[in-house]
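Here is the promised in-class demo. Please do not try to memorize the tokens; focus on the logic of going from shape to residues.
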């Protein structure tokens, strides 16, 4: 979602054992770049639901969100102001089924190895490096800081 020139995004570090899933994007603004599964928050959509939806669309996995590394505010490589909500999740179902048009590859990688990927191979590398650093240091916060949207 874009509001007043600000793009709202939710992304997820999906863990299985000691490895995290990364995807290679095939988008005009991120061609052949590694990233965490995620995408735009739809207008009126709950942030947590957005994260779950984006993971399902891009990877085919159902996940349980177990924490967050925080909120990141930055100017993207396409010169948009982005507010990114980044979560930590565990696979609970589904199977790997990449979104064909936008995702070309995926791999499970040790978090230490993620830190060694060259900046030019990462989408918005400064943010991915910040998230990776928080994952390595286990700077995690409770998912309860995000209040689920109440519906009437």
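The designed amino acids, position by position:
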């Amino acid at each position: 979602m874009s509001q007043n020139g600000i793009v709202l995004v939710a992304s997820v570090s999906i863990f299985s054992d000691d490895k995290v899933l990364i995807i290679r994007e095939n988008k005009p603004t991120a061609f052949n770049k590694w990233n965490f599964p995620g995408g735009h928050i739809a207008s009126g959509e709950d942030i947590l639901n957005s994260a779950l939806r984006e993971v399902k669309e891009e990877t085919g996995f159902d996940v349980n969100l177990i924490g967050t590394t925080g909120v990141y505010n930055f100017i993207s490589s396409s010169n948009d102001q982005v507010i990114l909500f980044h979560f930590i999740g565990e696979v609970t179902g589904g199977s790997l089924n990449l979104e064909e048009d936008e995702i070309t590859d995926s791999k499970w990688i040790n978090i230490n190895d993620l830190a060694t990927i060259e900046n030019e191979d990462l989408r918005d590398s400064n943010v991915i490096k910040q998230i990776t650093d928080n994952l390595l240091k286990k700077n995690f916060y409770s998912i309860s800081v995000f209040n689920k949207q109440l519906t009437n």
